[in-house]
């Protein structure tokens, strides 16, 4: 029973049925409707097992009418139908590339997209007259591995986890502003707009009529954006502002806005952004002094109120709450921890005292460490808070899109230790963008999820480096890198020489030409050398002679002094392979008989027969590899 209708289909069972074949099912409704259901045939002994399945299950969670179109198929999916809809393409080959188009409500048809990429997520855009519908698509495989489950959801989903009854518009955004407002049912005014297209770990929205606030969290993924509302909790406000002075009122506002608030002496107030879509900085004024803070990090300072009074300000965390304190009491402000030596006559009266970090650490342009972790535990009377700052990076310059270079020598070692010909790599460089979080609170599982997702995406983007770095392919990655270095030197060296003088220009031109030719000819020879070296290693493995393999590794690992030495090295390898292959017919059975008796004798015969072909062939390949290696050098 599908779509509230009964379906009937017929097929004949016989011994020559294919593994997969379709059966046309017809509904018993007034209008004739058909759907193709597939049969999977398995034979276990004398039994035949037939599995009936639909290639696709489509689930509509958009609360809108969806339509699907593919070649001669046009299917309508009602908005209120919560069960699955069976779907299949009108093709004889079930494994062929299948694409459909989507229409939502009164929109135009979307571009064609595939339903076969299991495990993928994406977004489909359907354009209408005054808006674009964004539909999230997820494709998963069923538990019995025959049916793909395709789920359509609104790209933007709103979840109300608060204790208030809310109205959220628009559910389907009707413009591209990327801003959303929320209103509590029963009240006239709504909140200030907030941005819902960018990730947000928690923004407090002011609700003027309720004299309170609401917390919004935006989680963005490839196929959906989840906007969650929750009740205010302690520490959710951007700042707790404290005017601990006795002299004047503190004026403060969000930077760039006109609306200014006033905090009288000895008063405390929670602060929330007046307009969350604008610059999130706080501007304050006290008497004739002014300042601006981003309310993210610990800071402190002071300014004069009059000739006799200094006003101190400090920004710090109390639990999870950021506090901005203004006071004329020096005892309340502690810039840093200092440990003094109280012994009389001490040579070093100050044991520990914080100093500004050196420029090599403070400057963002300096290389970042691969792993940088800082943990600060804060105690107060009622709570203990762990502030955790994690940075994973390596080398390069710090920027939002900076790609940091990581030479994975350990990966080379791991792959080479496997000993397989197909896993030889050299000159492999991974470039991974560093992951860094500052001034944010995360649960441990949230933090680990973000780190794993970031580096998984970065690693997948760099898989081509690993593939192109295989020696069995000639290491084209190394060839391209070498050619780029040669071209760079060809232009750079003459330019550097021209700056100094005509003689230096000529010398630079010679160096540039030599570098370009060297990288071009040497790179091409290196490609052939790596391929033949990998083949030679495979032939050595076929011989099953560990002693021969060890001697070959030692000889091939020895670096020749010049081109003549490379030719001599290749000639020795050829001679060793021919002699070893011929004599192995006799020596290997004898050695096997001494170690394992009759069984070892027959094993030795097998090794000898294989070696008489593999060793001379491997010698010829090794000679070619050494020759091209000499050309490269």
From TrEMBL:
<dbReference type="GO" id="GO:0045053">
    <property type="term" value="P:protein retention in Golgi apparatus"/>
</dbReference>
<dbReference type="Pfam" id="PF25036">
    <property type="entry name" value="VPS13_VAB"/>
</dbReference>
<protein>
    <submittedName>
        <fullName>Vacuolar protein sorting 13 homolog C</fullName>
    </submittedName>
</protein>
<dbReference type="GO" id="GO:0006623">
    <property type="term" value="P:protein targeting to vacuole"/>
</dbReference>
<dbReference type="GO" id="GO:0007005">
    <property type="term" value="P:mitochondrion organization"/>
</dbReference>
<dbReference type="InterPro" id="IPR026847">
    <property type="entry name" value="VPS13"/>
</dbReference>
<dbReference type="InterPro" id="IPR009543">
    <property type="entry name" value="VPS13_VAB"/>
</dbReference>
<feature type="domain" description="Vacuolar protein sorting-associated protein 13 VPS13 adaptor binding">
    <location>
        <begin position="32"/>
        <end position="168"/>
    </location>
</feature>
């Amino acid at each position: 029973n599908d779509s509230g209708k009964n379906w009937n289909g017929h097929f004949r069972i016989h011994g020559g049925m294919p593994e997969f074949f379709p059966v046309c099912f017809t509904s018993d409704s007034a209008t004739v409707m058909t759907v193709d259901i597939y049969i999977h045939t398995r034979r276990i002994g004398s039994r035949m097992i037939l599995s009936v399945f639909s290639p696709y299950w489509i689930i509509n969670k958009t609360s809108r009418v969806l339509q699907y179109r593919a070649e001669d198929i046009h299917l309508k999916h009602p908005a209120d139908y919560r069960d699955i809809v069976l779907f299949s393409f009108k093709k004889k080959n079930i494994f062929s590339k299948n694409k459909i188009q989507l229409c939502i409500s009164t929109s135009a048809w979307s571009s064609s997209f595939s339903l076969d990429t299991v495990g993928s997520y994406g977004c489909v855009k359907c354009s209408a007259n005054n808006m674009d519908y964004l539909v999230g698509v997820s494709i998963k495989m069923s538990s019995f591995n025959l049916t793909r489950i395709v789920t359509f959801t609104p790209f933007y989903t709103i979840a109300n986890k608060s204790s208030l009854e809310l109205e959220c518009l628009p559910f389907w955004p009707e413009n591209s502003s990327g801003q959303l407002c929320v209103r509590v049912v029963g009240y006239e005014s709504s909140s200030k707009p907030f941005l819902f297209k960018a990730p947000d770990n928690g923004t407090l929205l002011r609700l003027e009529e309720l004299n309170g606030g609401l917390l919004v969290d935006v989680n963005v993924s490839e196929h959906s954006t989840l906007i969650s509302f929750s009740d205010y909790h302690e520490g959710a406000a951007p700042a707790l502002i404290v005017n601990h002075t006795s002299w004047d009122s503190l004026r403060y506002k969000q930077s760039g806005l006109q609306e200014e608030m006033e905090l009288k002496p000895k008063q405390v107030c929670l602060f929330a952004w007046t307009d969350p879509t604008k610059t999130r900085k706080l501007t304050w004024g006290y008497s004739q002094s002014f300042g601006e803070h981003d309310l993210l990090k610990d800071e402190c300072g002071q300014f004069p109120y009059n000739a006799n009074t200094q006003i101190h300000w400090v920004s710090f965390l109390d639990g999870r709450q950021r506090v901005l304190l203004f006071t004329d009491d020096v005892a309340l402000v502690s810039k840093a921890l200092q440990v003094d030596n109280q012994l009389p006559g001490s040579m070093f009266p100050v044991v520990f005292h914080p100093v500004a970090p050196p420029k090599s650490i403070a400057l963002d342009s300096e290389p970042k460490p691969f792993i940088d972790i800082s943990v600060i535990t804060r105690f107060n009377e009622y709570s203990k808070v762990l502030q955790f700052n994690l940075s994973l990076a390596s080398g390069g310059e710090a920027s939002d899109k900076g790609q940091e270079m990581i030479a994975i020598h350990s990966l080379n070692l791991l792959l080479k230790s496997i000993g397989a010909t197909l896993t030889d790599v050299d000159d492999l460089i991974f470039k991974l963008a560093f992951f860094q979080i500052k001034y944010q609170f995360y649960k441990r599982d949230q933090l680990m999820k973000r780190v794993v997702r970031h580096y998984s995406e970065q690693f997948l983007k760099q898989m081509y480096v690993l593939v192109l770095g295989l020696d069995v392919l000639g290491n084209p990655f190394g060839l391209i890198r070498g050619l780029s270095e040669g071209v760079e030197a060809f232009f750079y060296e003459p330019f550097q020489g021209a700056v100094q003088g005509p003689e230096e220009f000529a010398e630079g031109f010679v160096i540039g030409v030599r570098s370009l030719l060297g990288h071009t000819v040497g790179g091409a020879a290196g490609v052939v050398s790596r391929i033949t070296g990998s083949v030679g290693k495979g032939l050595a493995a076929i011989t099953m002679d560990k002693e021969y393999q060890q001697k070959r590794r030692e000889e091939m690992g020895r670096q020749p002094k010049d081109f003549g030495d490379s030719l001599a090295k290749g000639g020795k390898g050829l001679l060793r392979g021919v002699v070893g292959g011929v004599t192995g017919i006799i020596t290997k059975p004898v050695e096997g008989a001494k170690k394992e008796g009759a069984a070892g004798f027959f094993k030795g015969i097998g090794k000898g027969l294989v070696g008489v072909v593999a060793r001379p062939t491997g010698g010829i390949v090794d000679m070619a590899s050494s020759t091209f290696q000499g050309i490269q050098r």
